[in-house]
Design brief:
This protein is α+β, with helices and mostly antiparallel strands. The chain contains 13 helices and 16 strands.
Length: 451
Amino acid sequence: MDSDTLQVFQSELTCSICTKCFLDPVTIDCGHSFCRPCLSLCWEESQTPRSCPECREIPEWSDFKTNIALKRLASLARQARADHDHSSEEQICVTHQEAKGLFCEVDQTVLCGPCSECPEHAAHSHSPIHRAAEESREKLVKRMRTLWKLREEMKISLNQEANKTQSFENYVALRKAMITVQYQRIPLLLHEDEKMHLEALEQEAKEICQQLKGSVFTMTEQAESMREMYRELTEMCHKPDMELLQSLGSVPSCRSKSVQLHLPQPVVPEFNVWPIPGLIDWLRQFQVYIELHNERVTHHLPVFEDLRCLLAGPDGPDVDYTPPRSIYFLSWGAESFTSGQHYWEVDVAGCCNWAIGLCNDSWARESDMALDSKGIFLLLCIKENSQHSLFTSFPPLPQYVKKPLGQVGMFLDYDGGILSFYDVANRSLICSFLYCSFSSPLKPFLCSRYP
């Protein structure tokens, strides 16, 4: 192939981003093709919606398959370029004065023909330089795909950790208000106890905030390290065959695995239990007996599935979150509350997913029972990846306290617009709905799920 023909051939197989021969090429919706690594890095750096770097058309999809035909042609183009530049790239063996045209896969060195037949190399596997280089590129590309996928997961975790930090800071202010209301409304609680409780909360909050911010910083550094590693591997793949093979020793064989093993674990913010002496005894003077009726068993309950979707976030997979063969047990109170103060307890021991609280009659009759419905005041416990999380409903808010292991007490002050939940065994406050405008009859609600 003459120089002009080679130049035209290679220009058609050149990525417009890196101006080098295609590496793991992809063709996007508009028909333009790019190296997958170049397109990934380009789109990540762009602040605008992902568009074609050439024509700016916005593709409908971003998960493209490798263009196999283009990949093979790119390999041929590299081979043609290597043959054309043969004299400048080849190395001469000092011992035998012959060109080094073989690659020893065991010793990771380039050899001439006679050297490959020496006793120290004769039993090893050898390949022509170009074939060995292409095989090495393919291995590096596979490693890069794994690394990029891992980095995308890291970015999702980083966003979740940053959102968690903001959510926790907002929660601290709400938690202080919950505690203050408890001490104001219950006569036997002392002002000195309230002060100690709030001071302990403030100190814990500072420590947890520092942990969260440290986690965000560590994840940010790790994500940047992965990106730099990805860029280095991309540059290595674009090297000429001989240079690529001679630089393989600088790439640790388990580098991407070591990164995966050292991914920072997210912080699980959780306040310690703070017992309030005499609390449960005072509440039990308002205790009522709740008769349950309208019991139901179902395999599908949107309120939990909505919460799982919320936990997964916008970047989470679009899948059915209902565990196979799971069974939900639902029941409602036979009577509704329309005024007064009422206290009752529910045992959640042995149940990993549950929802308890109050709902209005319309929600009890609805078939969808969605989490974003109005007229529900629920405390929900959900187990994901061996981690239990507590949330209150509408809008769903995380409650950064320990999961109760036994009886949960509920105190409704209908006229005062407050519903509070308590860990009976630890004599502590779980959370409260404050300053609510209860305007319709409210029924006690209980739901538990067993896998």
